[in-house]
Amino acid sequence: MDRRLFLAGTAAVIVLPLAPAGATQEAMAEAIRKVVGTATPTEGRVTLDVPPLVENGNTVPLTVTVESPMTAADHVKAIHVFNEKNPQPNVFSARLGPRSGKAIVGTRIKLGDSQRIVAIAETSDGKFWMAGADVIVTLAACLEEST
Question: Could you give the CA distance from residue 10 to residue 2 in angstroms, rounded to a whole number?
Fold first, then answer.
């Protein structure tokens, strides 16, 4: 393959319009079902700390805290975070154990649009606890749309 043919092919691929990928409320619900199975998450014990209004969706601070003694008999096994409008409904999952000390996970995420964020904690007794928050994003990340 010569250089001109390669560059022409690359330019053609770059110019092709791509449909923006995006999760939906249904995709988020399905992702949650894959984690919790037939269980119904209960509101409570989980605190989702995320700003309700962000100017830029590129770096949104998010902290999930779960009330738990974090002992061998009673601890948080995992924290899962989901969203409804980013390209993927699963934001992240963090595995924890009694040696974690505290059930707190903090990070920064990208948000493609204003949307609902849901955090679910899985405890050692097989129960699921949840919290949700709505975030308004004035300048979206994750999506590049031509105007």
Answer: 12
